[in-house]
Amino acid sequence: MSFGDQGMSYGPPDPYAQWVAERERIRRRRRIRFAAASAAGGVLVATVVAGAAVLYADGDEKEAGAAGAPVPSTTSSEPVPSSRRPVPSVVIESPSGAPSSLPSLLKRPIVTPEQAFPEKDVRLADGTAYERVDLATTTDCAHGMSVQLAELIEQGEECAQLTSALFTDAERRSQVTVTVLSFRKVEDASRVFAMASMDPVTYQVVSLDPPPEAGMPTVPPGSAGVFRRLMTVRSVVFANGQWGDGAETDEAAITKQTTDLLEYVNKRVVAREDG
Amino acid sequence: MTGVRHGVSRTLCGMEIWINPACSKCRGAIKLLDEEGAAYTVRRYLEDVPSEGEIREVLERLGLEPWDITRTQEAVAKELGMKEWARDAGSRERWVRALAEHPRLIQRPIITAEDGTAVVARTDEAVRDALGRQPT
To answer: Could you give the residue ranges of the DSSP H alpha helices within A63-215?
Structure first.
């Protein structure tokens, strides 16, 4: 797989590697303490994204909205391959300067699937068209993500809702899954966003396979993928993009599609949570 | 999720649902099971791969043949040329072996019901059918 910025194997983790990871997790659990600010809207996004950008300096990740902010400190020592890395304990500390509007924002209902993904046929401002070929929602979020991400979420309150939609382009060549993972507490969303930004393969949500009626191929296991994410007030919006045939070419095109659809959905979530 | 590792055989008991998290029908089935308050075990069969013995057992519970639960549109099925494979008793084991070696070929979700039967639960009706199957 090539798509270098997030270029690691994509698909179900190796069972033995998972078993090893579990043993390691039990043996030597480490703590990573984040001094991430928990606040609403732009303040929170800026803070956490900045942390991710710094820690991801060896990659090509270009997240929107990065700005100067405290960098998470870590006590991890020797590097461990992603599939074998234990899930660290991540503590998100509440900031002293949270906006006064935060409590009222958190009283708003969780964004619904219809609000996040209102259209089956999507046309973006630049004229590109996409079709939403599948939509799935659950409150049992662990079944829509990697084992490591599920373990990470268990460190806080359980997630409130996970909704995924699978989009394809006009040529039906791409498969981009956009997932909205919503929480009741900002800190829990921050924890997920921070770790997914540092290690987007280990802490990934699952991409949807196209339903049979869509007449599209299932992406071959291990194919290249682009991973992007943004954070709103209490949700993390993920986008995973791949070519349906597993091709590793046209990276710029699949990256643009992935980013555009991420931003399209993110705007709708922000409108509900922070509008 | 169950903790049995690849290749380890076991007897299926209670209600179990075999899922691929990438499958929206699977997520829908789990959602419905939860709404109905069912007690069940989730098995991510791509990671916790069923043995040939388990596949045979599920087929018996389903009352189906292996080709009936094979996703022949998958790329690996095309690579193997499964559409051309014979669908008779003599070829049954070849199909079962392929499902165990390439679990992506297994149709999903499959629910093993309390009464010892199983269903391919791709609709809400099928999930409710599985829920209604109680031991006599």
So the answer is: 102-106, 113-116, 147-153, 186-198
